[in-house]
Design brief:
335 residues, alpha+beta, Rossmann fold, OB fold (Dihydrolipoamide Acetyltransferase, E2P), 2 domains, six-stranded mixed β-sheet, 33% strand
């Protein structure tokens, strides 16, 4: 049996059926991300696992033990929320030590564990400071240290980085992943940010309206979306009705919709010699910078396509330029 198992799990709030027959396994030592839009049920599943919400029906197993009705304090689960929830009148040391003191761990062992944990999260030099003296990222690392110092069986992270600025957020993503691997702690991470999920996860479960739309590695979900919803949520795909796409390229496409990643849409001012490609002519209508990538919007008559091109020293294309467009057939995903 998997280390964590959800079997036919349902959760309703009155008439609102939030989780619908969830079946999900998490292996020991994995970092699993529950990804999806607001209101899709991902945080509710986390709260059911922690015991903060009682399930309507179904079972939850942890390390082979049915914990569906076990008291939250007896589940061996640590949790970090978006709000840091640090005690403002306690030092960093006392905040991290709080759970150990509640467990009546001997004082000398508390001292040792707290020091080790603050070394791991890189806050040894802040041990005597108070939360108000720390940055948001430092406070989040204190909250993380407090959650894992008690050596929980599972660590739950409920959108812990959503209130932090972009650069610090990226650094904390790397730090959390490093700590998780170093401690080999089974971790479930909740986010609505696909880039965050891609960076941090061993496995992603994409939620949609209370059910799991698709599960897999980050590469699986990015390169092989199984449904229109997955393609619309991950990877900035061009999503087009197959009939319109076929009309534009003069071929019959046997499916309902096609999904095309913008980085595989090649554009050129000259005709491209390419076999096994769909080819169009189009006009660039706009462009926008995404860091080192320029996204061009191309009007191909019956369809519009976004094309991602690595930024070079000089802009290769401009608005109103007529271009040739080529898309490799094997890379077009049929839905």
């Amino acid at each position: 049996m998997a280390y964590i198992r959800f079997e036919n799990l349902n959760k309703s709030f009155g008439d609102n059926h939030v989780l619908k027959d969830i079946n999900l396994d998490v292996e020991k030592g994995e970092l699993v991300t529950l990804l999806g839009p607001s209101g899709c049920g991902k945080s509710t599943l986390l709260r059911c696992l922690s015991g903060l919400e009682k399930v309507t029906s179904g079972k939850i197993y942890l390390d082979g033990v049915d914990i569906t009705d076990v008291d939250p304090r007896d589940r061996g689960i640590g949790m970090v929320f978006q709000q840091y929830s640090l005690f403002p009148n306690m030092s960093v040391k006392d905040n991290v030590a709080f759970g150990l003191k509640m467990k009546k761990v001997p004082k000398d062992e508390i001292e040792k564990k707290v020091k080790q944990m603050l070394d791991i999260v890189g806050l040894s030099d802040k041990i005597d400071q108070f939360p108000m003296q720390l940055s948001g990222g430092q406070q989040q690392r204190v909250a993380l240290a407090r959650a894992i110092v008690t050596e929980p069986k599972v660590l739950l992270l409920d959108e812990p980085l959503s209130a932090i600025d972009a650069l610090l957020r990226h650094n904390l993503q790397i730090e959390i992943r490093r700590i998780q691997k170093e401690l080999n702690i089974t971790t479930i991470f909740v986010t609505h940010d696909q880039d965050e999920a891609m960076v941090m996860s061993d496995t992603i479960h994409l939620f949609n309206a209370g059910h799991i739309e698709q599960s897999g590695t980050p590469v699986d979900l990015y390169t092989r979306p199984a449904t229109k919803f997955t393609a619309s949520f991950i990877g900035n795909y061009n999503l087009l009705p197959a009939e319109k796409f076929g009309k534009a390229c003069g071929e019959t496409i046997d499916c309902s919709d096609v999904a095309i990643r913008p980085e595989i849409v090649r554009i050129s001012k000259e005709p491209m010699e390419a076999c096994d490609c769909y080819n169009f002519k189009g006009t660039i209508t706009s462009y926008i910078s995404h860091g080192n990538v320029i996204r061009f919007k191309v009007d191909c008559g019956d369809i519009w396509l976004n094309s991602d091109v690595v930024f070079e020293r000089e802009m290769t294309f401009a608005e109103d330029d007529e271009v040739y467009v080529s898309v490799e057939k094997d890379l077009v995903i049929k839905l």
